[in-house]
Specification:
The protein is globular, with a radius of gyration of 22 Å. It is of the alpha/beta class.
Length: 414
């Protein structure tokens, strides 16, 4: 029998993979239901995604959609247009001709010297400045990566970011990168994926214990910890203290995403969305144009505005401030003062927390070998970010605790 602690996406996926190995599973969750951060709210105006809005399409994603019998909704062609805001307007390419030439020359010189790889302690800000120049760092690399990691470029470890975006994080048993082919989502939103997982697990006889906080781990039971980084550090401390100490040091950043519905206009910008460098004065990190990305996401125009604390460097809007912040940011972007038809319901409780990918992530990867064979981890603090990659991490965690070494150790303890 395998115990999974946490019923978010990682925990549910890990439990599914354990059942495929023919072992019984029980899932323990502190909340009152499954899903974790992933949730889709259906409103009269359209879908509201609480967190991620889609998967990167890859061999891994395709396999999961087949197993769960979900027909993928593919992103529209309009979503290929992505923008960065500079000098008062959105640009497909934010650098001037001279800045672009500087980027080509600097990157070419670094390539010729075989010096493209990040150095040991180099941040994304330092690396992108060295490779492409100050303008490349300010107007291209920084907004692009803060839109993904919700953290300042001078806090992000370049080695941690690029390791997680290539073949997988060292020390986690990554199976290699699957070739990606755009973005997909379930027709009913990301919540449909979680619902199918949950229903499928119950049909396979998996037991769930909700509203159940785990304070300790039983070393006689093969276990996958699929919780937040702070909870994982607390749980594994008696069994892998140095790894737990590293996980406990991961800085966290808060993020708030708010979906607003507007009447469509012929002057609407069409595309995936816009990223906002800090120098522009726009408070949002970015905005997603949901109805341009996927069909069936709203009766009018659906936009998700994303605000992040950037690891405590910025304030987050309160529920009362959200309409004002969106109105001002949208005025800066479009020049218009349209009032939204509706704003999606706010998430209850505290804003979601994401790990800051600083050098601590590399330490965690180095210490993963400290785990005893009966124990595995699954989560977004292990060096790979994004829902598709979290599915890979979950499968690897299941492989670890259902492997021969883990089974043998479990029988010996029994």
């Amino acid at each position: 029998m395998v115990r999974v602690i946490g019923a978010g996406l990682s925990g549910l996926a890990a439990a599914w993979c354990v059942t495929e190995a023919g072992q019984d599973v029980e899932v323990v969750e502190a909340a009152s239901g499954p899903g974790g951060l992933i949730e889709t709210v259906h409103t009269p105006e359209g879908l509201v995604e609480r967190a991620a809005n889609g998967f990167v399409w890859s061999e891994t994603t395709a396999r999961w959609f087949r197993e769960l019998e979900i027909t993928p909704c593919r992103a529209n062609d309009a979503s290929r247009r992505r923008f960065i805001f500079r000098d008062g307007r959105p640009r497909r390419w934010p650098l001037s001709p001279s800045e672009t030439a500087g980027l080509v020359l600097r990157a070419g010189w670094a390539w010729a010297r075989r010096d493209l790889r990040p150095r040991d302690t180099e941040t994304i800000a330092a690396w992108s400045t060295r490779i492409g120049g100050e303008a490349t760092s300010r107007w291209l690399a920084t907004p692009a990566l803060q839109g993904i990691y919700a953290a300042p470029a001078d806090r992000l470890s370049a080695r941690a970011v690029f390791a997680g975006r290539s073949r997988g994080a060292p020390g986690t048993g990554a199976r290699g990168k699957s070739r990606s082919r755009g973005i997909v989502a379930p027709p009913g939103g990301m919540g449909e994926f979680v619902e199918r997982l949950f229903e499928g697990l119950r049909a396979r006889g998996v037991g769930f214990a909700f509203d159940c906080r785990s304070d300790t781990l039983d070393a006689s039971v093969a276990t996958i910890v699929a919780t937040s980084a702070p909870s994982a550090a607390r749980l594994i401390a008696p069994h892998a203290p140095r790894l737990a100490e590293a996980i406990g040091r991961v800085p966290m950043t808060s993020i708030v995403s708010v979906t607003a519905f507007f009447a469509t206009s012929t002057s609407d910008l069409r595309g995936f969305g816009v990223l906002f460098p800090r120098e522009t004065g726009v408070r949002a990190l970015g905005v997603l144009f949901n109805t341009d990305i996927f069909d069936g996401r709203g009766t009018g125009r659906s936009e998700t505005w994303v605000y992040g604390s950037l690891a405590g460097a910025l304030p987050l809007p309160t529920t009362a401030e959200v309409p004002e912040w969106i109105a001002e940011d949208r005025r800066r972007l479009t020049g218009r003062t349209d009032r939204p038809m509706a704003i999606g319901p706010a998430r209850a409780g505290s804003p979601p927390l994401l790990p800051v990918y600083d050098g601590t992530i590399l330490t965690i990867q180095e210490r993963m070998a400290d785990l005893p064979p009966w124990l595995a981890l699954a989560g977004n603090y292990l060096g790979r970010l994004g829902v598709a990659k979290l599915l890979d991490v979950a499968r690897e965690a299941a492989d670890r605790v259902t492997g021969s070494a883990a089974v043998g150790a479990s029988r010996a303890r029994g």
